[in-house]
Amino acid sequence: MDPKNTNRIRIACRDEAEHQLVKKVAEAKIGTGARVLRDELYPIKVDSVKRAAVLDKNHNILTGAAVALGEENETTVAKIA
Q1: Alpha carbon 57 to its chain's center
Q2: Any idea which of 10-24, 38-52, 55-69 has the lowest mean pLDDT?
Q3: Of 80, 81, 58, which Cα lies nearest the Cα of 68?
Q4: Helix or strand or coil: residue 23?
């Protein structure tokens, strides 16, 4: 149970597959009025990235930039700012 909010239960999973399974079962089995919270996102700062590799001429983020940065850093990129 969450110490700050006794109506909230926190579940720790070993890997992403287990996390998705727990989330799927919880959404199906929990009673009316209960909900499963969204995944937590953690900000990561990546230094020494060339602007030309991430931005186009109009300073818009390139479509493959998030995928490339995610693969290099072994993570999933949800948002680039």
Answers
A1: 29
A2: 38-52
A3: 80
A4: helix
Q: pLDDT category, 67, cuts 50, 70, 90? A: confident
The tokens for 70 are 């995610």
pLDDT band at 75 (very low <50, low <70, confident <90, very high): confident
Q: How far is CA 55 from CA 12, 62, 80, in A?
A: 37, 6, 11
Helix and strand counts by DSSP (H, E) for the chain: 3, 0
Query: What is the pTM assigned to this prediction?
Result: 0.46
